[in-house]
């Protein structure tokens, strides 16, 4: 995103965490600078200045906000140079690597000794890796205490703590109360209707308006046979995290503006990662009011935004799976790509049995497989599936890049690094890279300018716009071009369906 003051302020208004590390906001009245997403009260537009990095803001006489610590945001100089290792370590902590394997394994993945990694964290963040991970775990544990009937012991391990003692100490340090005392103070409305036997239910906050039916229609058309099942009201899928397998089911509760997420008990120790993945897939970070207000300033988008208020950009549950789906969908219809992906899963996916204690294995008969992993597809014989040889080569190359760690889909790598890695894979062109950025990398300003449908919608003098013309036309929609794309695609799809029905 360009460092344009209008674009930056729009991003700040949304408090969207996806913009962190791209710039900082400096407030002239307080002489403090913050990262986008800071919980402090939004300053007046006239008092705001924007700088590309904390160093520039400090050179101009501003000091860092103590609430949001902008000097340690992703992509900023505090993450550069010798502390590039801190960037990698923080992303690994966010993925739960420290919880699963401990500090020695984390330090080894980053390529440093434990003491040196701890020193870098203290130097650049003012906190140890363990403290960063503990804060993440303890706030998620608070949610489980409020929303589930899991025992204290189950919550301790589900939120990533290795012992009950560490869990009790972490909760008491953060909230001044023991876990039992916290649970006793939860609001009466937080109690589940009944204790779950085969599933755990989480409730994730949703900013309204939220067009759940349209999001489900999008996912239903692209549901991977055997892996996903989308009904009129819910989304279900098989899940594999590490050595554990199970299922999740998501449904939007309009009355409480929450996404109710049911998770099989077999995945209970991965609840924090599952909540993060659901937030990505169902685009729960977006602020629709801020996004729609900006897009509605364009005459082309204004009627579309009013028609589809609350439209979201679906993300990815499993990044590699979604990237493969996008590659399969190159120059193929949505229905055709779904069929091809189903064949891929049937041949290379691991068979899945949904049964867990207290539940019939036949509850969801359509969930039959786990999605194939990168190791399997990197050397797979894809002949006979209906894929072209070029497409098969691209899938294997993409799988190999993921398996080797050259491509990590915006976790250890940033968005730009991931795009660079994608560009080095034969068969991954600009359209594919932009679609992966849009759905997999959580890039709110992604825009596939070369897409034929978009070029037709943005026609110039009766002819489809060129890619460069579409790119130029889209700049006024920044930093929310992914959402503009979603509105335009939805409108084109509805017009196309109406035309077919009329022709029929």
Main sheet record: 5 strands, antiparallel
Percentage of β-strand residues = 5-15%
What structural category characterises the helix and strand content? alpha+beta
Instruction: Give the C-alpha Rg.
Output: 23 Å
CATH topology of the domain at 5-72: DNA Methylphosphotriester Repair Domain
Summarize the structure.
By secondary structure, the protein is of the alpha+beta class.
Tell me what the structure shows.
By secondary structure, the chain is of the alpha+beta class. Helix content is 46%, strand content 10%. It contains 22 helices and 11 strands. The C terminus is likely disordered.
SSE topology:
Layout: H1 5-14, E1 24-27, E2 32-34, E3 48-51, H2 54-59, E4 63-64, H3 84-94, H4 97-110, H5 114-124, H6 129-147, H7 152-158, H8 164-175, H9 179-184, E5 199-205, H10 212-221, E6 228-230, E7 234-241, E8 244-253, E9 258-264, H11 271-281, H12 288-295, H13 302-307, H14 319-328, H15 334-348, E10 350-351, E11 369-370, H16 374-378, H17 389-404, H18 415-423, H19 430-439, H20 452-457, H21 467-474, H22 481-503
Parallel strand pairs: 2-4
Antiparallel strand pairs: 1-2, 1-3, 5-9, 6-7, 7-8, 8-9, 10-11
Helix pairs in contact: 3-4, 3-6, 6-8, 14-17, 14-19, 18-19
């Amino acid at each position: 995103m360009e460092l344009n003051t209008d674009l930056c302020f729009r991003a700040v208004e949304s408090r969207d965490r996806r913009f962190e590390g791209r710039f900082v906001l400096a407030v002239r009245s307080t002489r403090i600078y913050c990262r986008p997403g800071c919980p402090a009260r939004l300053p007046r537009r006239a008092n705001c200045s924007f700088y590309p990095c904390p160093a520039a803001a400090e050179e101009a006489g501003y000091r860092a906000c103590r609430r949001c610590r902008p000097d340690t945001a992703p992509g900023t100089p505090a993450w550069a140079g010798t502390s590039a290792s801190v960037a990698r370590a923080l992303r690994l902590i966010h993925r739960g690597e420290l919880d699963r394997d401990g500090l020695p394994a984390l330090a080894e993945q980053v390529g440093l000794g434990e003491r040196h990694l701890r020193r870098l964290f203290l130097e650049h963040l003012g906190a140890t890796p363990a403290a960063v991970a503990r804060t993440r775990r303890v706030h998620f544990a608070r949610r489980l205490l409020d929303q589930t009937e899991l025992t204290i012991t189950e919550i301790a391990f589900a939120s990533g703590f290795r012992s009950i003692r560490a869990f009790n100490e972490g909760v008491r340090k953060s909230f001044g109360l023991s876990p039992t005392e916290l649970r006793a103070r939860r609001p009466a409305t937080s109690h589940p209707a009944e204790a779950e036997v085969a599933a755990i239910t989480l409730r994730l906050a949703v900013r309204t308006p939220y067009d759940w039916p349209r999001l489900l229609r999008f996912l239903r058309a692209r549901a991977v046979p055997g892996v996903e099942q989308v009904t009129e009201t819910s989304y279900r899928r098989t899940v594999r995290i590490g050595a554990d397998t199970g299922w999740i089911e998501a449904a939007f509760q309009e009355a409480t503006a929450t996404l109710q997420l049911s998770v099989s008990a077999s995945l209970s120790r991965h609840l924090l990662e599952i909540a993060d993945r659901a937030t990505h897939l169902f685009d729960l970070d977006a602020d629709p009011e801020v996004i729609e207000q900006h897009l509605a300033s364009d005459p082309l988008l204004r009627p579309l935004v009013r028609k589809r208020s609350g439209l979201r950009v679906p993300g990815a549950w499993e990044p590699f799976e979604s990237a493969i789906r996008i590659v399969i969908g190159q120059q193929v219809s949505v229905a055709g790509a779904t069929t091809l992906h189903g064949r891929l899963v049937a041949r290379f996916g691991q068979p899945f049995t949904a049964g867990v204690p207290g539940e019939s294995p036949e509850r969801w008969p359509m969930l039959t497989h786990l999605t194939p992993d990168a190791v399997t597809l990197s050397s797979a014989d894809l002949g006979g599936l209906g894929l072209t040889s070029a497409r098969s080569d691209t899938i294997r190359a993409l799988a190999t890049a993921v398996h080797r760690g050259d491509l990590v889909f915006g976790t250890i790598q940033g968005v730009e690094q991931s795009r660079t890695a994608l560009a080095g894979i034969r068969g991954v062109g600009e359209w594919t890279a932009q679609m992966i950025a849009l759905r997999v990398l959580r890039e709110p300003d992604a825009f596939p300018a070369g897409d034929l449908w978009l070029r037709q919608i943005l026609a110039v003098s009766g002819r489809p716009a060129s890619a460069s013309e579409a790119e130029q036309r889209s700049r006024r929609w920044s930093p929310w071009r992914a959402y503009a794309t979603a509105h335009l695609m939805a409108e084109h799809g509805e017009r196309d369906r109406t035309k077919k029905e009329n022709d029929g």
